[in-house]
Design a protein that fits this description.
Low-confidence stretches: 1-31, 308-335
Number of helices: 3
Number of domains: 3
Helix content: under 10%
Shape: globular
Strand order of the largest sheet: 1-5-2-4-3-6
Length: 462
């Protein structure tokens, strides 16, 4: 779930001068030694910034949020200044890009100073700028959601200038493509209020804009099946809207800022623009108000679906720190076959080891590395030739791990994100597009990239 950075609508001259002084001090201060910190990363952009646009609270290298991700032109990110000083550079290995602290983020502040919507107190939270000016708003918001992973990941604070930098932007405003082909997921289901025990409802199944949303006895009716796509909570063509004050209505979806909501880990449904109002239930009434108490907490029951990918999307990641279900695989033809790694062909030092979190209690380890272990799935079968989505279930502890995936002789190198800082009980998933031939003669081999070991593999689903 992405979180937006916030900026007061009018920044006083005094604050601006302080930002300039801080920038001068940072630029004249010697660099500190690099360190690695586990950080929860979210994303924001042109449309969900507050106000919409590129204004930032602590201008340093940029007067407006931006950057390409190189060491000399890092991308803007937002956080709490009590957590990390304005002007500090960081490097995100998963994205292979540098960032610089230049903005404030309300939810980052909340997560650091107390029990915030995502965790805390003392929770490290950076909100990374994804851009999006002149781009498609829905595509940008979906990209932000797709790039956000559950849990924290390793970030290098005050990094050296020699880290690898990838050139593609996080979001391409011209094409709508998301970095790495990342693909968002939608949830569809029922929201039950913790205070009233009733569920969010579109009364009478109305499709009329301006209908007052309410809560009613939970049931199986389609009038309680709401879709959330990472920004908009909707049913049919209507979105939950907060046009003014405490009023909540079901209005025709426009993509406007008053329709943008964060469904948070603590169960609140919070407005993105100010992070001060939450969807609350009182009796049968639904209002926007305080985020405190059980009246603002909701339990979701439903399913996750993967919408159509952008035309250029090829790889999408879904790593869960709680080993929850990954998004449903998508493909150009029928799929859903499971191939277990411990039953595949092993080469070199690759071997089968116990894994309590894995599908059948076993995984394949020691792929790649100095002894060049390999894992080969043979007899991979599909009815027609085409490009399919292969979901790899794997473990990469303490760091991201690369693997060379060779499909019928065609190789690609994939970097698998870290699944846990220390636990071998967390299985992540990563989706990779592969071209398969009709029939059962396809082979898929996993090997190492250089001398570095590949992740441990549980199973694949195609």
């Amino acid at each position: 779930m992405r979180r937006r950075a916030t900026l007061a609508s009018l920044v006083t001259v005094a604050v601006t001068l302080l930002g300039i002084v801080a920038a001068l001090l940072v630029s004249s201060t010697p660099a500190y030694a690099s360190s690695t910190q586990k950080v929860y990363l979210t994303f924001y952009g042109w449309y969900d910034n507050t106000p919409p646009g590129c204004a930032i609270a602590y201008p340093d290298l940029h007067q407006c949020a931006g950057g390409t991700g190189s060491y000399s032109d890092p991308i803007t990110f937002a956080s709490d200044t009590a957590e990390i000083a304005a002007g500090t550079k960081v490097y995100v290995p998963r994205l292979e890009k540098y960032f610089i602290m230049e903005d404030d983020c309300t939810e980052c502040d909340q997560d650091w100073s107390g029990q915030g919507p995502d965790g805390g107190p003392g929770m490290w939270h950076f909100d990374l700028w994804a851009g999006g000016e002149n781009g498609n708003e829905s595509a940008l918001l979906n990209c932000e959601d797709a790039l956000t992973q559950d849990g924290s990941e390793s970030v290098i604070i005050s990094p050296p200038s020699t880290e690898t930098v990838s050139s593609p932007p996080l979001f391409n405003s011209s094409t709508g493509a998301c970095y790495g082909g990342a693909q968002a997921t939608d949830t569809v289901g029922q929201y039950k209020n913790a205070s009233t025990g009733t569920c969010l409802t579109d009364p009478g199944g109305s499709s009329t804009s301006g209908t007052a949303a309410d809560v009613s006895t939970c049931g199986s009716s389609s009038t309680q099946q709401f879709t959330y796509d990472g920004a908009f909570l909707k049913i049919g063509n209507l979105c939950i809207d907060n046009p003014s004050g405490s009023t909540l209505a079901l209005d025709t979806c426009s993509g406007g800022p008053t329709e943008e909501w964060s469904v948070n880990p603590n169960g609140t449904i919070e407005d993105m623009q100010t992070s001060t109002k939450c969807v609350r239930a009182s009796g049968s009434t639904l209002t926007a108000g305080s985020c405190s108490g059980t009246a603002s907490e909701w339990t979701f029951t439903g399913t996750t679906v993967t919408p159509s990918a952008s035309p250029s999307a090829s790889v999408s990641a879904s790593v869960s720190a709680s080993a929850s279900a990954s998004p449903s695989p998508t493909s150009t033809a029928s799929g859903g076959k499971t191939y277990e790694a411990d039953k595949a062909a092993l080469g070199g030092s690759a071997d089968v080891t116990n894994c309590s979190a894995c599908l059948d209690g076993e995984k394949v380890s020691s792929i790649g590395g100095g002894s060049s272990g390999t894992l080969t799935f043979t007899g991979v079968s599909e009815p027609t030739t085409g490009t399919y989505t292969m979901t790899v279930y794997y473990l990469a502890v303490a760091e991201s791990k690369p693997a060379v995936i060779t499909v019928d002789g065609v190789a690609q190198t994939v970097s698998f994100p870290e699944t846990s800082a220390s636990s071998y009980s967390v299985v992540g998933s990563y989706q990779v597009s592969v071209k398969l031939n009709a029939g059962s003669s396809n082979t898929i081999e996993f090997s190492g990239s250089g001398t570095k070991g590949a992740p441990d593999i549980d199973h694949i689903v195609i």
